[in-house]
Known about the structure:
The complex is a heterodimer.
Chain A: H1 3-23, H2 25-49, H3 64-94, H4 96-101, H5 107-135, H6 145-169, H7 173-189, H8 197-203, H9 205-212, H10 215-227, H11 233-253, H12 261-267
Helix pairs in contact in A: 1-5, 2-3, 2-5, 3-5, 3-6, 3-7, 3-10, 5-6, 6-10, 6-11, 8-9, 10-11
Chain B: H1 10-15, E1 20-29, E2 32-42, E3 47-51, H2 58-65, E4 75-78, E5 81-82, H3 87-92, E6 94-97, H4 109-119, H5 124-137, H6 153-165, E7 171-175, H7 183-200, E8 203-208, E9 219-224, E10 227-233, H8 234-241, H9 246-260
Parallel strand pairs in B: 3-8, 3-9, 6-7, 7-8
Antiparallel strand pairs in B: 1-2, 1-4, 4-5, 9-10
Helix pairs in contact in B: 4-5, 8-9
Amino acid sequence: xxxxxxxxxFWAILWRELLRFVQQRxxxxxxxxxxxxxxxxxxxxxRATLGLSIIPPYETYITYDVYVVPGLIxxxxxFNGMQNSLSxxxxxxxxxxxxxxxxxxxxxxxxxxxxxxGTAVSxxxxxxxxxxxxxxGTETPLAGLLPLLPVLVLTGLTLSxxxxxxxxxxxxxxxxxxxxxxxxxxxxxxxxALYPLWRVREGSVLLYELCRFxxxxxxxxxxxxxxxxxxxxxxxxxxxxxxxxxGALALIGYTPARGGPAAGRAAGGG
Amino acid sequence: xxxxxxxPAPQAAQAAPPVLxxxxxxxxxxxxxxxxxxxxALRPGRVTALLGPNGAGKTTLFSLITGLFDSRHGxxxxxxxxxxxxxxxxxxxxxxxxxxxxxxxxxxxxxxLRYFAGLRGLPGAHARRRIAALLEEIGLAEKAKAKxxxxxxxxxxxxxxxxxxLDRPAVLLLDEPSTGLDIATRRWLxxxxxxxxxxxxxxxxxxxxxxxxxxPEDDLVVLxxxxxxxxxxxxxxxAATGAADLDAAFTSLTSVRREEAP
Lengths: 270, 262
């Protein structure tokens, strides 16, 4: 593999993903409407009833809509990671995956390029969401927006790896849609996206423990701390660890030499 | 090489090293044997028809050659590169037309080809020239901006052939490429593939279950129940079975085996 070939192949995969994204305007609006409904409807209602004490990384009292923004950024990336994987299942059923996997480049590189291109789309959605949120009066610290970029690459990759692992294990498109719903909402609700964990512990110790074992909690906390220019080592370690584990499982799933089921299904042979 | 035509002379093709060589290849789905001890050599400038009934193992063999499946039993060498040890270099010499259609329906013809050119690492200007030339060659230059979804099955197949040729492969694999095509497109496809082999010296392996797609000058491999039951030039295979024509030879080869089966 030469660097030029790798670069051109990566650009081709990213370009295709962006083309599909631009052509599917409904997908862009749906991706924005979902977190905006949470922010403008759900958070607006809670703003009046739920007060939040000063907890790191916040240095002053904040309103609930400000608290919920990192969780909604995570929600955008979680949906996008699943959407990306759904499109991989679709590609597999339509045969495009065969073309990708028979490309003369290492399979791990091809899967990474595919995950990065999906992550790029999610990052566009995140910044569009933050801009609209600011217009609606929920501001995020401007200084945190640039450091947020590499973190979004990392969190996006992690959630894509999780989705890609699932796509390697699931046989049919219809099944994947069901699993998406089964996974996304528990991951979102059982995390620190909507409530601080100390609040959750006051309500239920069991739920608190579930939240602590949910990698999505650490995605949200990493985004939250970065936005406020703080470093959260635990969150970073968990997010990186989750990426490594699910990335490796996804690679095995798509590698025929390791008995990966998705590689076989991509071939469609018998 | 025939200097008058620029084509590889038959003797030269005979003497040249094979562009695809398979030795002792076997593959199983669990306990079910799909391929058993396959040996095959594909000569440059020649079309080899891989003839077999449905379920013979043709698509499994293609999946192994394209690296989508992996087998620890046997060797596959493409243009001198062992698939297991030098996967990228081996696959770089391969052009593939899969049995099922594999174009992105939501992208245009040109976008599909540019995407594939990128995957193969072709520089932009070179890719654009190749795409324009190939679309001209297959008679679809005016459809470059059309969405693939709007094309007929035959036009999509032509685009897939053009895609497989973008990187000037040494080996062209076609897995039952005429499936679902009308007679005129089928005829175009078979003639085009033979012309490509003659004029560009590539080795072509074409899987089919239709004897009328096999030309008298082709090399022939008959696959049945995962085994090669006959191989050679078409005339030799017919003569060996004592049949009157290829149709009868194919029926004889595959029905005898059916009777032998438990």
